[in-house]
Amino acid sequence: MMGILEIDGKPLPVDQFKGRSSDKCDTREVSQNKVQLSDEARALYEAQAKKIEQIHEEVRNGFNFQQEGTERVVELLLKDLTKL
Q: Does residue 82 sit within a domain?
């Protein structure tokens, strides 16, 4: 039985990336699927998870509603819009 994990922006332990076998499978015809992530992919995932956690912390602290936070958000939006 598969479960659905909620994504909360925090990195998942590496163990959860490994395939799981079912107890109901016939052991004579077991095939195991595995997902292997490169070190670069793991580093990107961890960096993204840290950035998301930083954003959550700023929201919790009300940083984006202060003048400094609002100015930073506007600067980042402007930077993204000029790329279009």
A: yes
